[in-house]
Amino acid sequence: MSRCFGMLLMVLACALNPLHAATPGVDAPPEPGPPQALVLPPIIEQALPGGLKLLVVQRPGLPLVTAALYVRAGREADPAERAGLAILTGTLLPKGSLRDGREIGAPQIARQAEALGSSLDVGTSWRVTSVMMTVATPKLDAALALIAEVVRAPLLRDDELDRARKQALDGLRVTLANPGDVAALAARRVFWGASPFGASMTPASLQRVQRGDVQAFHARWFRPENSLLV
Q1: Given a cut of 70, is residue 16 above it in pLDDT?
Q2: If pLDDT is split at 50, 70 and 90, which confidence band does 10 have?
Q3: 86-141 pLDDT, tens per residue?
Q4: Helix/strand/coil (H, E, C) string of the chain?
Q5: Which of these, 20, 43, 205, 208, has the minimum number of CB atoms within 10 Å of its CB?
Q6: Alpha-carbon separation of residue 208 from 16, 154, 169, 205, 216 (angstroms)
């Protein structure tokens, strides 16, 4: 009994030990440092003759540059009963292009990006489709040329569309098998209703997308006046 009472006293002594006795950074959070001033580099903005808007942000001291082309169209631009069209269009951009009248396949485009020390990253979200590369500064011209090529002259081939559709269907099956993901889709539909932001891809909507739909989507949205190069 006396042993239990002694242990209880030790626990109480530890609990009542003043906090200032703790060692900062060891058994107590470290003291906050002085506030740091946030200095953002200036943004240089220019409108190019073709309508493309250009933003340049310089960060000296690092011989790397990131070039990102943003097209102001994403999943909300999908036509009715064609949910998934924007994603499929973005997926097809680096899967083949036309260069000087010759067809360039996806493997060659990937190898060219790899030779520049980078990859051609394409993403489609709400309100935007992006194509991005990060390269050493001397490689910038070649990177910009590759980005321009896949955005302006993609092949949008039927076989690549079929492959992209199958991949999207596989991902959709995983999503629909997860109760949490299904609940999120249902919640977005309830919140946004019948607006484009409430639509979700379905196997049926993906099957409806044909090459003509992809070509029309690309022709409508992938234009200089609807794009931003950063």
Answers
A1: no
A2: low
A3: 999 999 999 999 999 999 999 999 999 999 999 999 999 999 999 999 999 999 99
A4: CHHHHHHHHHHHHHHCCCHHHCCECCCECCCCCCCCCCCCCCEEEEECCCCCEEEEECCCCCCEEEEEEEECCCHHHCCCCCCCHHHHHHHHHHHEEEECCEEEEHHHHHHHHHHCCCCCEEEEECCEEEEEEEEEHHHHHHHHHHHHHHHHCECCCHHHHHHHHHHHHHHHHHHHCCHHHHHHHHHHHHHHCCCHHHCCCCHHHHHHCCHHHHHHHHHHHCCHHHEEEC
A5: 20
A6: 69, 21, 12, 5, 14
Is the CB of residue 134 less than 8 Å from the CB of residue 64?
A: yes
The model's confidence at residue 6, banded by pLDDT at 50, 70 and 90, is low
| Residues shown for the chain | 230
Residue with tokens 């109480």: 12
Measured CA to CA, the distance from residue 43 to residue 58 in angstroms comes to: 8
